[in-house]
Structure formats: C-alpha cells, structure tokens
C-alpha cells in the first residue's frame, strides 16, 4: 500500500515538473508594427530561439504580420509541428476573445484563436500598406516579398504573434509553425446558404424528400 502511494506521489511530482520545466511555449496575440505582409490565407514562420527577447521573467520570440488579404479574419489557426508542450493565452488579445488549447498539450499541436464581439472584431484587412524595404525590386510596395511594413489602419490589421518560450535556454532548437487565416463568410455566401436551407425545409415539408 505504501509503495503504491509513493508511486502515485512520484507520478504526480513528475507531471508537475513536466508542466513547469520551461519547455512549454505559450502563444499570444497583440498589436504589431514593422511587419511582414500577408496577401494569402496561408503562411509559415520559424520560431528561432536565437531571436528571443526578454519578456518579464521569461524569453519570447515575437513575429509581426499584416493582414492584407482583403477580408476580415475571424479565426487564426497555428499548427506547431514540434514535440514541445504548447498552449495559448487569450489575455490581452485585441482581436479574439478565446483560444484553444489553453491547457498545455503535447505537440504537434493546432492552436486556434477565435471568437469575435464588440471589442474583439477579428483581424481587419489593411486598405493599403507602406514598406520600408521593397525587397524584391518589383516596384510593388506592400506585396508578400516586402518587409518592415505598416498598415494604413495600424494594429487593426497589423498583428503580433508572441511565443513565450519559458526560461532562457530551455528551448534551443528552432521549430516551424504553419498559419492559416480564416476569413469571415461573405454576405453573398451567407445568403446562398440561407436560401439553400429554406429550399431544403420547403422540400422536406412537401413530402418529396426521402
């Protein structure tokens, strides 16, 4: 009996250490500045500990992006393809009021930011973008090859992904994250869905549907 209790206590202690070992990256969102431009719904970035900055008692990696897709983003998915323990934190997020998973989850992990309301409108699309580095020389300011860009509506479109890496030195190898911007359904699409629903209901009530 005593041995069983000791074993349970050791397992509990091991779990608590695993949850607080400094290798549990936490993803957050905030307003950005001096960002890379996103002109499509899919993007990829690397979280490199060599680019870490101090954030409170931890170290973080910060990456800025601008939604320049022409549509408001009502959900942001981030797929972290690494064997760390990941979670998200919706605190202070100006775009979405919720995210999952908020409890540490073993990777690879899909993290989702979602939920809009009067104070969380999603990530709006910029109307225009000005870039400090027109990198590819194509003469188009604000395309996906440019960097150090600003949106005409500031942080409404310019968002910052902050990854808290925990204690300094806990994570030493880079990992890749695939992002997906999920836009709001266009009014025309909503009308078509509503009309289809009404048509199906009418068909069912007429007795013609199987």
Helix-strand layout with pairing:
Blueprint: H1 2-19, E1 26-31, E2 36-38, E3 42-47, E4 53-55, E5 58-67, E6 73-80, E7 85-88, E8 98-100, E9 105-106, E10 109-114, E11 129-133, E12 147-151, E13 158-166, E14 175-183, H2 187-206
Parallel strand pairs: 1-7, 2-5
Antiparallel strand pairs: 1-13, 3-14, 4-5, 5-13, 6-10, 6-14, 7-9, 8-10, 11-12
What are the main properties of this structure?
210 residues; alpha+beta; seven-stranded mixed sheet; five-stranded antiparallel sheet; globular; disordered N terminus
**How does the overall form come out from the CA principal axes?**
globular
How do the SSEs run, as a string of H and E?
A: HEEEEEEEEEEEEEEH
Q: What fraction strand?
A: 35-45%
Helical content (DSSP H or I, runs of 4+): 10-25%
What's the number of helices? 2
Radius of gyration: 22 Å
Number of beta-strand segments: 14
Instruction: List unreliable stretches of 5+ residues.
Output: 2-22, 189-194
Q: For the record, give the distance between the C-alpha atoms at the N and C termini, rounded to a whole number.
A: 62 Å
Number of spatially distinct domains:
1
Oligomer: single chain
Largest sheet: 7 strands, mixed
Describe the protein in words:
This protein has 210 residues and is α+β, with helices and mostly antiparallel strands. It has one domain. 18% of the residues lie in helices and 38% in strands. The strands form three sheets. Strands 1, 2, 4, 5, 7, 9 and 13 form a seven-stranded mixed beta sheet that branches. The protein has a five-stranded antiparallel beta sheet with strand order 3-14-6-10-8, with no helix packed on it. It has a two-stranded antiparallel ribbon with strand order 11-12. Strand 4 and strand 5 form a beta hairpin. The longest helix has 20 residues. The N terminus is likely disordered.
